[in-house]
Amino acid sequence: MNEIPIEEVKNFAWNQMDAMWHDGSGLATTDMVKFTYKGWIVVNPWMDEKTQKEVDPYRYYGKRRTERFIEEAMHKIKTYNRPIRRIQ
Prior knowledge:
The protein has three helices and two strands, in the order H-E-E-H-H. The chain is mainly α. The model has no long low-confidence stretch (mean pLDDT 87). The longest helix has 18 residues, at 63-80.
């Protein structure tokens, strides 16, 4: 799997945000793909930093932050989707 559709990256981001909302410990973002914006941790760039409204991440956060997030998310998706090899 070399190419990951952007819809899969968006779904990954929404799942991260959902996990963050439901975490009671405050540690949910520790291993998430994220960046900081205006003092907020952003785990879904398709939402504003307060997760109150949908945004165009390229216009809202900028091209560099958005592209970096997408690249890191794709890497994490590829890592999680690796086939498991059995040790013989």
